[in-house]
Amino acid sequence: MLFDTHTHLDAPQFDEDREDMIQRAVEAGVTRMINIGFNRETIPTTMKLAETYDFIHAAVGWHPVDAITMQEGDLEWIASLCKHEKVVAIGEIGLDYHWDTSPKEVQHRVLRQQISLARELSMPIVIHNRDAHEDIVRILREEKAGEVGGVMHSFSGSWETAKMCLDLGFHLSFGGPITFKNAKQPKEVLAKVPMDRFFLETDSPYLTPHPYRGKRNETAHVRLVAEAAAEIKGISVEEIASITTKNAMERFGIR
Fold first, then answer.
1. Are 255 and 86 in contact (CB under 8 A)?
2. Which of 70, 94, 225, 236 has the fewest Cβ atoms within 10 Å of its own Cβ atom?
């Protein structure tokens, strides 16, 4: 029972073999997936996937890279979709200082608006954070995001940042980087995270785990992430799968 808590099954990289790719994930033991709709194009395709497959759930929100494209009415659109039984979180939302596409002040405003909406609707949030550790923690605190909690997607920060996120009530999610030989920090952080406070993900088609690094990622590869996590935590793959699936089911309110 593996749970890929963050994937992009609707990405164009899968246009030629989407159904086969999803079937490979099922055959690999992946029983749940959360697909992420993060802008005007991917929110509808995410909802279609969630409505087509019983085991696919949806998160909807506005990505920081696309923050500048958010228009009047989009927040209300997200709010209306959150009433759907398959929508389990608002996300991915956050800050991205790597790609220079949306000004920081716009990213901050859009993030604060979506945290406020999440609190209003009592929905957990999925946080994207790239090169913005200090600002992301500050805004989460200022906006009282701990009231709803959620997950720090593909966590890449230090243990000090991890502790602050955990103290705010957030879970941490780990993907392909924990399989990389030279990626010491995510492995060190995962080793210290309490067993009930982390998930597994692929972020497919990105962040492909070893030994397929450099190729297209897919949800079936969450098993490789589970194997790496099991080695880091010193327990079996079956235990990792059971624990992380339980953590995610509880956090996202999935029965």
1. no
2. 236
Q: How many CA atoms lie within 13 A of 108 on its CB side?
A: 11
Q: Which helix or strand (DSSP H or E) is residue 32 part of? A: strand 30-37
Q: Assign domain 2-251 to its CATH superfamily.
A: Metal-dependent hydrolases (3.20.20.140)
Q: Average pLDDT in the 183-200 region?
A: 97
Overall average pLDDT of the 77-92 stretch: 98
How many whole angstroms separate alpha carbon 160 and alpha carbon 17?
Answer: 41
Please state, in angstroms and rounded to a whole number, the distance separating the CA atoms of residues 170 and 190: 14
What tokens does 15 get?
């246009």
The answer to whether 111 touches 146, Cβ cutoff 8 Å, is no
Place of tokens 């994207």: 128
Domain boundaries, the chain: 2-251
Element (H, E) at 115: helix 104-121
Nearby residues of 33 by Cβ (< 8 Å), 6 or more positions away: 3, 4, 5, 7, 9, 25, 55, 56, 57, 219
* Percent over 70 (pLDDT), the chain: 100
pTM of the model: 0.97
255 has a pLDDT exceeding 90? no
CA dist., res. 228 & res. 183, Å (int) = 12
